[in-house]
Structure formats: C-alpha cells, structure tokens
Design a protein that fits this description.
Blueprint: H1 2-20, H2 28-47, H3 61-96, H4 98-107, H5 115-132, H6 140-169, H7 174-198, H8 206-232, H9 237-258, H10 266-282
Helix pairs in contact: 1-3, 1-8, 1-9, 2-3, 2-7, 2-8, 3-5, 3-6, 3-7, 3-9, 3-10, 4-6, 5-10, 9-10
C-alpha cells in the first residue's frame, strides 16, 4: 500500500503546485508544457520503451492523438479549476470522473452492471452538483468559473480514462504508449504557448521552466507509483482503485481546508462526503 500512499501524495501535490504557481510568478501554461518534457524524459529513462511497440498493426493512433490533445488542455482546465474552485472541489471532480469511465465500461466494453456499482454511480451523480454549487459570489463570471471548470475536469478526465482503456485493449506496450502520449502532449502544449507568445500574452521564463520540471517530476511520480501499486497487488485492483480515489479526495479536502483555508458550504461538504461514499461503494466489489 506504500505505492498507493505515494501516488495519493503526488496527485494532491500536483494540485498544490498549481495553486501556488501564481504566487511564485510561474506561468501555468508554460509550466504544463515543460512538465511534458520532464515526463517524456523520465519515461524514456525509467520505462525504456521501444519504438517497435508502435509499429505493430492495430495501434489506435486516433486514441493516442486524442490523448495528446486532451492531456495538456485538461491539465490547463485543472489548473483553472484549482484557481477558481479550490483544491477540494477540483480533486473530487477529477476522481468522480470515474463515473464516466464506468458508464463507458458498461456501454462500450461489455462490463456487467452490479448493484454496488449502480448505487455508487447514483451517489456520485448526486455528489457532483452538490460539490460544484457555489452561492454568494461577488460576480456572475466568478460564480460561473467556480462550477464550469470542475465540470470540465470531470468530463475531461473521464474521457482520458476511456481513451486509456481503448489503448490498453489494443495491446500497446505501456512504455511505448506513454511515450507517444507524452510526446504528442508536449507538441500540443508548446504549440499553445508559442501561439500565446506570438500574441504577446506571455514570455518564456526560466522560473516557469523550472516550475514545469518540478510539476513533471510529481506528475510522473503519480503515474509510476499508481502503476507499481497495481503490480504489487495484482489480485486486488478494486482495493488499489478505491484506496487511490478515496485517498486523493480525503487528503485534498484536508490540504484545501487547512493549508489554503478553502471554505465549503454545508452542501459542498455534503457533496465531498457523498463522493467519498460513492467511490467506496464502487470499489467494494
């Protein structure tokens, strides 16, 4: 379980780094782009993928290309969600995206719907609007950002998970698929930043590059420890899945409320508790 704990810490630390970025004058868009330089390098160094894995027939290039686009853009949405809605809501929305992957498993991948999963999905669907609801905002625009970005995180990470399943079913080696995804994401992320630079909206800085490398180390650690947890407990995938998601929501809530003094209404807090219950029920069997 040590790998699960390390993955949980890395996942929440990602949100903390995104929350602190502006305080340290780090351009989040640039940091996300440099993050993929770090993850690509670490994948090549530690997983040592071979190009042959991508030369076999049946490689789902459409899914890989979609992931290359979604990974950096949803990362930007997560950063905006952390900024406008806070760590608690953002982490919970990201983890509740499992509802979409579960629905896809039933609709697209032939999985059978059990009573536990049906109850968990229902609880999760009830939890989502409770978590993102915000009242008493000073402006309508801020209020919209407070619920829109968590919903984008919810939908985006759900789609990413579905695409990951599609790539896994195609039998592409893990290292090769990760290397392809990160390389494509790197190109998309830097294309977005070059466009911003041409428009005069940003300038590249060493501070943002260093912040991005740190972000990449944590991001890769999150992925690596999660994969190692599954390898260490191959007969208990539900335990790893439930522990990871429960841990991120719980630790994210503690960090958000204690470190950043994020305020939750009773309805928001009830939504977080419902999310915890939903994830526990889904991971029960």
């Amino acid at each position: 379980m040590i790998y699960v704990l390390l993955s949980v810490v890395c996942s929440v630390l990602l949100s903390v780094l995104l929350k602190l970025a502006r305080r340290f004058e780090i351009d989040v868009g640039q940091a996300i782009a440099w993050n993929y330089v770090a993850t690509s390098a670490l994948t090549a160094l530690l997983l040592q993928p071979t190009p042959a894995g991508l030369s076999e027939p049946g490689v789902p290039w459409l899914a890989l290309a979609a992931l290359g686009i979604l990974l950096p853009t949803i990362f930007l949405a997560l950063a905006a969600s952390v900024r406008h809605a806070g760590i608690v809501r953002s982490d919970a929305a990201q983890r509740l995206s499992l509802l979409l992957s579960l629905l896809a498993a039933f609709a697209l991948f032939g999985e059978q719907l059990s009573a536990f999963k049906a109850v968990g999905i229902t609880l999760g669907l009830l939890a989502l609007p409770c978590m993102v609801w915000r009242s008493g905002q000073p402006t309508a625009a801020r209020g919209a950002a407070g619920w829109l970005y968590p919903l984008l995180v919810f939908g985006g990470f759900g789609m990413i998970d579905i695409l990951f399943k599609r790539v896994a079913l195609a039998g592409v080696p893990l290292g090769a698929s990760l290397q392809a995804m990160f390389a494509l994401a790197l190109l998309v992320a830097f294309a977005l930043q070059l466009w911003r630079r041409l428009q005069g909206r940003t300038r590249f800085t060493a501070r943002s590059a260093l912040g991005g490398v740190l972000l990449g180390l944590v991001n890769f650690g999150n992925i690596l420890f999660y994969l190692r947890a599954h390898r260490a407990l191959p007969q208990h995938p539900a335990l790893v899945f439930a522990s990871m998601n429960l841990g991120v929501v719980a630790l994210g809530a503690l960090v958000g409320m204690l470190l950043f003094r994020e305020r939750l209404s009773r309805l928001n807090l009830g939504g977080v508790l419902l999310a915890l219950l939903a994830i526990a029920v889904i991971g029960w069997k």
